[in-house]
What we know:
Layout: H1 4-50, E1 58-62, E2 65-69, H2 71-120
Antiparallel strand pairs: 1-2
Helix pairs in contact: 1-2
Amino acid sequence: MSSTKELQQQLExxxxxxxxxxxxxxxxxxxxxxxxxxxxxNEMVQKELELLDEDTNxxxxxxxxxxxxxxxxxxxxxxxxxxxxxxxxxxxxxVLKGMEEQQNTKKDEVIKLQQRIQALQPGKARA
Length: 127
C-alpha cells in the first residue's frame, strides 16, 4: 500500500501534467481562432475576386509595394490559402480532441488520488 507522501507526490505530478495539458489546449484554441479569422478574410477576398471582370487589374501587397497580379493567379492563390487553412483547422480539431481525451483521463487520475489520500488521513470527517 502506498503512503500518503507517495500519493501526494503522484498527485502533484499528475496535477502538473494536467495543468500543462490545459495550457496546451488554450494555446490550440488561440491558434484555431487565428486560423478561423484568416479563413473568413480569405473567403471574403474570394467572393470579391469572383465579382471582378477578367480584364480587371488586381494588385497584391508585397511588403510596402503593390504588385500587379493576374486575376486567375490571384484566385488560385486565395483558393490554395483557404485549402491550407481548412486543413490546418481540421488538424487542430483532431489534436484538440486527443488533448481533451487526455485531459479527462488526467482529471480522473487526480480525483482518484485525492480520494485515496483523503481515505488514508485518519480523523478526517468523510462527507
